[in-house]
């Protein structure tokens, strides 16, 4: 992102931003979430979401009152959710936390609830239920040596072709 914009950034390409998420010398450019390097914040979706809402409000304010003071972005930490398996999760809300199956239910409902629109909620719910019932993996992460991963992919591909034939 930093290279694309031709501005200062770190080795990962994240752009250095002010507290109002704009770039030095470019008050018209806002950089958010994973592409922004400002005050240390967790690399989580709620940060991206809150920053999006913040920029939306700020732009509305600037449109109504050009040159209005730019208030700083402040992240509100409402807690953290993490799964640790098929039926266990931790939902930590600071004052209290939920664990085990109750935590897992909270994790599931929260992730669906915060999606935008009924259609997304419905399709993700169906997709997740199917993946859950059929023991499918939610994501494939490449963690081993590349050669082994390629070999595994070739084996999977050959098996799929044999099945299709
Ligand atoms: C495997 C994994 C698991 C994670 N788990 C969690 C979790 O459990 N909880 C949590 O809070 N956070 C989690 N995160 C982090 C969270 O996903 C990120 O912090 C968040 O999505 C960052 O938001 P973003 O808008 O910066 O980027 P993204 O969500 O990546 O959105 C960027 C969008 O821009 C699009 N795009 C890119 N280039 C272009 C282009 N040139 N033109 C048009 N569109 C473009 C992309 O397709 C993408 O849709 C996880 C991240 C990963 C990778």
C-alpha Rg (nearest Å): 21 Å
Name the hetero compounds present.
flavin-adenine dinucleotide
Mean of all residue-level pLDDT scores: 88
Low-confidence stretches: none
Query: What letter string, H or E per element, gives the SSE order?
Result: HEEEEHEEEHHH
Helix run count: 5
Q: Tell me, what's the shape? A: extended
What quaternary form is this? single chain
3D architecture notes:
The protein has 165 residues and is α+β, with helices and mostly antiparallel strands. It has a domain at 1-77. Helices cover 44% and strands 13% of the residues. Strands 5-6-7 form a three-stranded antiparallel beta sheet. The longest helix is centred in the N-terminal third of the chain and has 20 residues, at 45-64. It is extended and about 65 Å long. Flavin-adenine dinucleotide binds at residues 33-35, 43-46, 48, 139.
Describe this protein with a few key phrases.
5 helices, alpha+beta, three-stranded antiparallel sheet, 165 residues, binds flavin-adenine dinucleotide
Q: Helices, strands, pairings?
A:
Elements: H1 2-5, E1 15-16, E2 22-23, E3 26-30, E4 36-37, H2 45-64, E5 80-83, E6 89-92, E7 97-98, H3 100-113, H4 118-133, H5 146-164
Parallel strand pairs: 1-4
Antiparallel strand pairs: 2-3, 5-6, 6-7
The structure holds flavin-adenine dinucleotide.
Residues 33-35, 43-46, 48, 139 line the site of flavin-adenine dinucleotide (FAD).
